[in-house]
Amino acid sequence: MAGEAETKRREENEIEFGRIVAFSDGVFSIAITLLVLNLGVEKGLVGSELIEELFDQWDNLLAFALSFAVIGRFWIVHHRFFSRIVAFDGRLLALNLLYLAWIVLIPFSCEVLGEYSGETPAVVLYSVNLAVVVLVGLWMGIDARRRGLLTVDEVTHRETGIRSAYIAGVFLLSVPLALVAPDVAPYLWFLLFVDPSSRLARRGD
Amino acid sequence: MAGEAETKRREENEIEFGRIVAFSDGVFSIAITLLVLNLGVEKGLVGSELIEELFDQWDNLLAFALSFAVIGRFWIVHHRFFSRIVAFDGRLLALNLLYLAWIVLIPFSCEVLGEYSGETPAVVLYSVNLAVVVLVGLWMGIDARRRGLLTVDEVTHRETGIRSAYIAGVFLLSVPLALVAPDVAPYLWFLLFVDPSSRLARRGD
Amino acid sequence: MAGEAETKRREENEIEFGRIVAFSDGVFSIAITLLVLNLGVEKGLVGSELIEELFDQWDNLLAFALSFAVIGRFWIVHHRFFSRIVAFDGRLLALNLLYLAWIVLIPFSCEVLGEYSGETPAVVLYSVNLAVVVLVGLWMGIDARRRGLLTVDEVTHRETGIRSAYIAGVFLLSVPLALVAPDVAPYLWFLLFVDPSSRLARRGD
Amino acid sequence: MAGEAETKRREENEIEFGRIVAFSDGVFSIAITLLVLNLGVEKGLVGSELIEELFDQWDNLLAFALSFAVIGRFWIVHHRFFSRIVAFDGRLLALNLLYLAWIVLIPFSCEVLGEYSGETPAVVLYSVNLAVVVLVGLWMGIDARRRGLLTVDEVTHRETGIRSAYIAGVFLLSVPLALVAPDVAPYLWFLLFVDPSSRLARRGD
After folding, report:
1. Tens digit of pLDDT for each residue in C71-116?
2. Contact state of D30 with C25 under an 8 Å Cβ cutoff
3. Nearest CA to CA, how far is B58 from chain C (Å)?
4. Among A29, A43, C27, C130, which residue is least crowded by beta carbons within 10 Å?
5. Is the ipTM of this complex over 0.90?
6. What are phi and psi of C46, to 5 degrees?
7. In contact, B87 and C154? CB cutoff 8 Å
């Protein structure tokens, strides 16, 4: 299954490029919508059992909200990344597929997290999945820039790199924490709302 | 996870704008199609049991029909809203994602309503879900107009506002009604077929 | 939930028109792909039980193949219909949504047919579902033409009408047959491979 | 259900052609994302049972990774094939639908393989499914070229043919092997990483 050696200019292959983007958008929108399948109620409950069952969905709903925000955020980043792509080749397509494979795994990790929210393996699985998404995205970005497929100024590039490293770092840091305090580890993810990358990237200038 | 500060003109970023719309359409079309997964029959039924099982799907079918109409209607409104957008930024994208998150929850609320159609928690869940969709949509519309991202004349804007308030009002009104008469509350939704917004919006002129 | 009174020319609203088509394509492609969810094997089978389980999927596979062909065929017809549309309004959008609602039901009818292939209710459900798709499509076509939204020559229009009536007729005819001989009724559907519409439509000329 | 006799030039029917490609992309992206539904954990596990359950997903994860790579690869091939199409007709649409039907079956074959990875029927089902995808794709390519719908130079055409035959050959060869050594047969698929087609196709020149 060898890749395509040839590099194609985007402006001369707008339709082909459009298909790559459309396929990626399709995968993102399906993955984000499949999250709802993790929610559900048992049949045949009576009286107040239904309310209890709905309240039992609370952890699933939190996992849904987090994962929706995360996939939505990754989609925006992916969308911005591809808007700066000026040429593509088989290698970029392969890296993009690898990236999407980890996006597609999120509904599974989300299901496990929602079902077992206070337990070590669930938190570790979720953290590793999301860290890998970010790291593959970083790899794809650096690789595309190095090979001249991407037009991006130095500050933006540095900012994206720092942001990716920061997000991956937060998720990876929650792995050892989950081993000792799985209940606490997800709170570490609130650090994602503090984003130092923009400030740090401009410090050098 | 900071937003994108920059505001982009739609006409200069038609491809990027197209992706936002395509992603939203993807989410809408998947959510509307996933509704069918709430329908199903058990295996291994014999004789007249299958007919009974199919008739037992009646509530699920009603919930399917209602939710299909509702998501379809929201899609038309979303579609018309984005056709009037002239510029976009990270804030609009974030609000759009929040809106889509509540759209994606509809198949879940629909499943609960179909399974427990005469019960208070199911009616409340469904009503709240749909009311929130409308209110987030209203928020997105007012916010986009205030920041100059939307071109829309005064009458249309007032009409949209009144219509949103009316739909949200009907759903929110069915919440207290569901607490005392959950069997009756869904009939309140027939008020959605009476739409006074167009007449009211023009009254001032 | 009133419709949109205004009629829009396609050529002046190509992007909005594109969204309608893209949304419909999304629904078609998801419905056709969800058919695979009706196939599946139980866990924990040992030895030759797996082979037996796979052979037990035979009826499900036939229902899958039939439904895939049918949805694919409907998609081609829909695709050709919309390529002839020159203007659209809220009424066409509403009819299109009604049409898509019945398309989305096909995976459910397919599941019931695959599970209970020799039984009357399953055959009736499947036949009625597909007949309604065709009849709503016919309604949408006649309505669009009468209101000047469709450019189509007389022969093609007559051919489409005859074909729709023929397909709906075959499915509706299998309903009474299924009441007396549910095993035989599906064989009536082979009549779909004989298509007299093209010949009949040209007879008048 | 007769096809469309007429052949349409792509350049004069870019929108209609775009819909075929968009529909195909939709099916590919949904099929590749549905793979995640084969992963899942039971509810109510306690203590180390969750870790065991996650490790039990190992075969499912391997089947997921393989199928994701395979569908992604088929999508790239399909994408390249359609970028060389200059005209289309009902016959190409029908063959494309037949091709997509076998793509849609992959999540099912993947589920069976993941559940029963060391057993003959699962390996045979998976191999046959993928071999048929390749062979239908080859048929579609040869047919399209013979009827002048495809512009492709001799070397590329020969290379595509040899590659398809090679991939189908590897999968078909694993069928008899699976009958005697189902544990070993999947290792044969590593031969897919060796691709002799490019070298062989250029030998003649």
Report:
1. 998 998 898 889 889 999 889 999 999 999 999 999 999 999 999 9
2. no
3. 13
4. A43
5. no
6. -125, 150
7. no
